[in-house]
Amino acid sequence: MTYQNYSLKQLQQIDAAHHLHPFTDHRELREVGSRIITRANGPFIYDSEGAEILDGMAGLWCVNVGYGRDELAEAAYAQMKELPYYNSFFKCSTPTPVLLSQKLAEIAPKNVSQVFYGSSGSEANDTALRLVRHYWVLEGKPEKNRIISRKMAYHGSTVAGTSLGGMDAMHKQLGGAVPNIVHVMMPYAYELALPGESDHDFGLRAAGAVEVAILEAGANKVAAFIGEPVMGAGGVKIPPVSYWPEVQRICRKYDVLLMLDEVITGYGRTGEWFAAQTLGIEPDTITTAKALTSGYQPLSALLVGDRIASTLVEKGGEFNHGYTYSGHPVACAVALKNLEIIEREELVDRVRNDTGPYFAKALQERIAGHDLVGEVRSIGLMGAIEIVKDKATKERFLPAGSAAVTVRDHAIAHGMMLRATGDTMILSPPLIWTRDTIDMACERISKALDLAQADLRKR
Ligand SMILES: Cc1ncc(COP(=O)(O)O)c(C=O)c1O
After folding, report:
1. Helices in 57-146 by DSSP H: which ranges?
2. For the chain: N or C, fewer Cβ within 10 A?
């Protein structure tokens, strides 16, 4: 590649002329130009101007083993030379998806031993939706078809992903969602708990909304409930510990399948391989992608629980669904090596026993006290900082989201990449972060908060 022959200005001009970006206001982008990231190593990314930025988002919640892993490049290269592609249709298979499936069955919750591949989290959720509906048809209950999801959920950006998700702005542009999906309240105590309501009670009340939706439709009409263990794009909303066990109890009571979307939380982020293990629940489907390859290749794996898989096998008949790149040999080779690295370097244990607790303490002790911060929260290496105008009343700055963008811009200018969603700053760093990296991040975030506060006061 010869991009080095181009100046930043030239790359920005070509980008503006030809490249439409995801989730972007293109008029605004053309006014400011893209930030061009040209290389990365360990926990750092570098832009075309040579600025070194600590990547607090692991790319987009995915680069769990950090950047610059030669082993992953070598695994891809070796597989490309041996067999770059063959499909998994027509009773064919290739070795790497076979071995990856075995590995995933080994690390998944114990009720899961089958895998269906795609290339993105959105595709995997499409598969999950098709599969649970197909399951109930095979079980002779085709009317059990409704899916319950949650407001502010993010399940991807295809038509199915958007329909499952609960993002108003996305639904507005959809022009007709996949039918028979309803959205109930999210389990976000900071904004939704009643005065004096404990976290525990709020968690039970939020789970109770699932039961209300089941009863409204009639249990014989409800196929499944879907949720992210921790709502990610919606603002790292961590439910009270009472929430998930109660949701599982309700689903079992009414024979409703439980679908967990672990596209962000899978592969170590919460201090277990899967958040299902952190939460102590056994979902019927687990959607995973992103950190399965640490983002080095596009790959998703829908982990399918034994209940659904055994019906699929016992009843037979073709499941009319799949993708050209289902079980892509190169992506699966990279995933196998990536899981090997995570195991060898004990990254999951490190998050559970060391960096996760240290991260939580650092956010509490060094960030939570700032005047602009209403709340900090984290689970494993996933955290959020709520930006408020008034700590006591939780009043936000206007227009909504503008203060968080101010913080984010100062953070990036001071070598810290983090994301602003609404009024929430989000952190989801590579699992290779150490205590020192966490210290560095806290220093840079504190500085950004100070500078943002000065700006916001002037306004
Ligand atoms: C929980 C969740 N589900 C699904 C997706 C969609 O994944 P993809 O962008 O790979 O389609 C995302 C993406 O961030 C996600 O956070």
Report:
1. 58-61, 70-82, 95-107, 121-138
2. N
Backbone Cα Rg of the chain: 22
> Are 451 and 314 in a shared domain?
no
* 112 shares its domain with 190: yes
CA 247 to chain centre: 20
Q: Does the Cβ of 232 fall within 6 Å of ligand 1?
A: yes
Mutate to test the pocket of ligand 1, among 60, 150, 264 (most ligand atoms within 8 A of CB): 264
The CB of 259 under 6 Å from ligand 1? The reply is no
CATH of the domain at 225: 3.40.640.10
Q: Is residue 411 part of a domain?
A: yes
**Ligand 1 centroid, distance to 287 Cα (angstroms):** 9
Please tell me whether residues 368 and 274 are part of one structural domain: no
Asked if residue 350 belongs to a domain, the reply is yes
48 three-state secondary structure: coil
Per-residue model confidence as pLDDT tens for the chain (459 residues): 568 889 989 999 999 999 999 999 999 999 999 999 999 999 999 999 999 999 999 999 999 999 999 999 999 999 999 999 999 999 999 999 999 999 999 999 999 999 999 999 999 999 999 999 999 999 999 999 999 999 999 999 999 999 999 999 999 999 999 999 999 999 999 999 999 999 999 999 999 999 999 999 999 999 999 999 999 999 999 999 999 999 999 999 999 999 999 999 999 999 999 999 999 999 999 999 999 999 999 999 999 999 999 999 999 999 999 999 999 999 999 999 999 999 999 999 999 999 999 999 999 999 999 999 999 999 999 999 999 999 999 999 999 999 999 999 999 999 999 999 999 999 999 999 999 999 999 999 999 999 999 999 888
- Kindly state whether residues 317 and 394 are assigned to the same domain: no
Q: pTM for the whole thing? A: 0.98
| Tokens 């507005």, located at residue | 172
383 and 334, same domain (yes or no): no
Is 236 part of any domain?
A: yes
Residue 311, in any domain of the structure:
yes
Ligand 1 touching residue 263 (CB < 6 A): yes
Range of the domain at 162: 71-344
Spatial CB neighbours of 19, under 8 Å, sequence gap ≥ 6: none
**Residue 228 Cα: closest atom of ligand 1:** 1
Cβ(261) – ligand 1 distance below 6 Å: yes
* Cα 232 to ligand 1 centre (Å): 9
* Number of domains present in the structure of the chain: 2
